[in-house]
Amino acid sequence: MIKSLQRLGVCLMGFALFGCSSVKVSDYAQEKPALDLASYFNGTIDAHGIFTDRSDKVVKRFKVVIDAKWTVQDGKKVGVLDEAFTYSDGTTQRRVWTLTEIAPNRYKGTASDVVGEAVGEVAGNALNWSYTLALPVDGKVYNVQFNDWMYQMDDKVMLNKAKMSKFGIYLGEVTLAFYKR
After folding, report:
1. Cα-Cα end-to-end distance for the chain
2. Using an 8 Å Cβ cutoff, are 53 and 174 in contact?
3. Which residues make beta-bridge pairs with 39?
4. Predicted model pTM
5. Distance in angstroms (rounded) separating the CA atoms of residues 38 and 127
6. DSSP string spanning 23-51?
7. Backbone dihedral angles phi then psi of residue 85, each to the nearest 5 degrees
């Protein structure tokens, strides 16, 4: 009995240690091609995506057309990403992001349905965003946290995976493939 409890304790400690470890954007610092947000998100970008719930069932499919432009304001790069979503059920949505470089490889972002500001960091080919989105579901709006990762594959393709949670409870994921025209 004591050996069983000891084994259980060791297993629980292992789960706790692995559960606490997380990937950092700096882990991708040496990956190529180096992501430059102002370069990749400039012009027209097409994306296709899915939302999967916590059981991995696809519950929404969508297409996004992004019109992106960057300027320099007060010595900082500022980008506007105008996103037009079309969902598989025929509904549409628009989100306009304003991204501002606040330091080398560090960005903040705002949009009308983002609560507060998104914060992001680039290293190597990766971008990690954290933000809260006011998400409408069945006539109600829920503030949902996103841990959003983007990986530039080449000069045309970027992959995106965003985990969604509320009160620390995993809700599902959004997966996107971007293609720069």
Report:
1. 64
2. no
3. none
4. 0.86
5. 12
6. --GGGGTT-SSPP-HHHHSSEEEEEEEEE
7. -95, 140
Place of tokens 């680039």: 122
Angle CA 82–84–85, to nearest 5? 140
pLDDT at 146 over 80: yes
C-alpha separations of 117 from 53, 56, 57, 108 in Å: 25, 28, 30, 6
For 10, phi and psi rounded to 5 degrees? -65, -45
Q: How many angstroms separate the CA atoms of 120 and 128, rounded?
A: 5
Instruction: Return d(Cα 172, Cα 135) in angstroms, integer.
Output: 13
User: How far, in Å, CA of 87 to CA of 108, rounded?
Assistant: 27
How confident is the model over 81-118, as pLDDT tens digits?
999 999 999 999 999 999 999 999 999 999 999 999 99
Q: Please, are residues 131 and 146 in contact by the beta-carbon 8 Å criterion?
A: yes
CA nearest neighbour of 43 among 70, 76, 72, 71: 70
Query: For the chain, how many residues are written?
Result: 181
Scanning the structure block, which residue is given the tokens 């790069």? 77
DSSP β-bridge partners for residue 115: 132
Cβ–Cβ contacts within 10 Å for residue 44, how many?
11
Side chain identity, residue 164: M
- Asked whether the beta carbons of 68 and 45 are under 8 A apart, the reply is yes
